[in-house]
Amino acid sequence: MVKRIVVGAHYGLRDWLAQRISGVLIAVYVFAILVALPGGRPLTYAAWRGFFEQGWVRVSTLVFAASLAWHMWVGIRDILMDYVQPVGLRLALHTVVLLTILAYLAWAIHILWR
Amino acid sequence: MAQAAAKKKRPKYLNLRALLFEIRLPLPGWVSILHRVSGALLFAATLWLLFMLDRSLASEQGFAQIQHYAALPLVKVSLLVIVWAFCHHLCAGTRFLLLDLHWGIEKAASWRSSVAVLAVSLALTAFFGWKLW
Fold first, then answer.
1. Peptide bond into A42 cis (omega under 30)
2. Within a domain: residue A61?
3. Quick check: A45 and B63 CB within 8 A?
């Protein structure tokens, strides 16, 4: 039994946990939204827009988007850590991915509070 | 420690031929690698999905355009691939959470849950595909 004293740099536990908690939140949101989506056929623009203007849809979608952003970051970072060995290239790709995810999140907020 | 690891030459066996023809992944391995592939695909597809959501909520005309666009066969097939990626990612992710809880970690049980993940995600994709069409 190796006794590790966890000090200083974290051992990835936070990301490991965040990946799981955000995954569960994403699943719950998708189930809820599939149930709640306006079912009228044919779907009209007014119904579609009205649905996303509801307070609870905005708030839950924002929480979903934030969970998704964190989940994506940990997941893509793990893939890059496994397959991209040159440090400079990996750093560059990490930066691009992080900026992309931030842009996704900002775009989602823009769409929700237009 | 680091030196000992560096000195020990492990046989590396990861050329394209080996990857394609010689390495045979067990079923749980397929579930795992497809979890990665579907995750990467969903990350890329988010750009496209956000674009469609944006346009459909922006205006009456945008909404009509996206309705027309989403009815194109190529778009529908692409959406179906994304639906599969989501369903697989969800099912495989649920399986990994259960494995974290030490549920079904024996060899036979993990093989069965892998079959379940592949089958349920395909069934869900078929269901949503039927809804979509």
1. yes
2. yes
3. yes
The conformation of residue B103, written as its DSSP 8-state character, comes to -
Residue A5: pLDDT over 70: no
Domains contained in chain A, number: 1
pLDDT tens across B53-105, in order? 999 999 999 999 999 999 999 999 999 999 999 999 999 999 999 999 999 98
List the 30-49 stretch of A: residues with Cβ below 8 A of B: 30, 45, 48-49
ipTM: 0.89
Place of tokens 């039927």: B130
For residue A95, CA distances in Å to A21, A42, A64, A98, B5 come to 24, 43, 23, 5, 30
Looking at CA atoms only, how far is residue B112 from chain A in angstroms? 22
Looking at the domain assignment, is residue A2 inside a domain? no
Q: List phi, psi (to 5°) of A7.
A: -130, 165
What range does the domain containing A40 cover?
Answer: 13-112
Find tokens 């709640």 and name the residue.
A36
The CATH code belonging to domain B24-132 is 1.20.1300.10
Q: Is the pTM here over 0.95, yes or no?
A: no
Domain boundary assignment for chain B: 24-132
